[in-house]
Amino acid sequence: MIPLFPYKQFVFESPLSQEEAIRRLSLEVADPRSGSQWFKANPLPFDGTVSETGFKIRRFIRGRNAFRPVVYGRFSPSIPGVRIAMTMRLPTGVLVFSIVWLCFVTSVIVLSLPQMPTSDSFQGGAIGWAMLLIFYIATTISFGVEVNKASKLLRRIFEVNDTV
Length: 164
Fold this sequence. Notes:
- The protein is α+β, with helices and mostly antiparallel strands.
- Helix content is 43%, strand content 23%.
- The chain has helices at 18-27, 92-112, 119-158; strands at 7-14, 29-30, 46-50, 54-59, 70-77, 82-89.
- A hairpin with a 3-residue loop joins strand 3 and strand 4 (54-59).
- The longest helix is centred in the C-terminal third of the chain and has 40 residues, at 119-158.
- The radius of gyration is 20 Å and the shape is elongated.
- The two termini are 20 Å apart.
């Protein structure tokens, strides 16, 4: 099933201890309230918060991409080291805006359905469907690119070779 809004779930099995995984991630995550990251020549790859049980981070970029995923993670001990369960999803503000925008476009499509036989109404409905399709494709691609980048960085930090 294709989700309406993009999200991705990962489970990494790391050979590191839980304490070492937390320490390594903490070294790669800047406090989001400190603006000093913008002025550094080589900024940390993430900003957010890391605790003993989990983390909430976003990949740091200098440009703009509203579709950068927020990564929520939980640490749990496992036999070889630590298990890190993560969910990557859209930021709440982007999710709310997307829902409002999609409701608006969908209402335009639904309202144009009774007048479909005329060419002007058909054109309006077709434009609405095209807007929905373009929005979905752009969101999915932008989100997917950012998920891949964040995933590679997290694999490096946690010394993970494969996904469970």
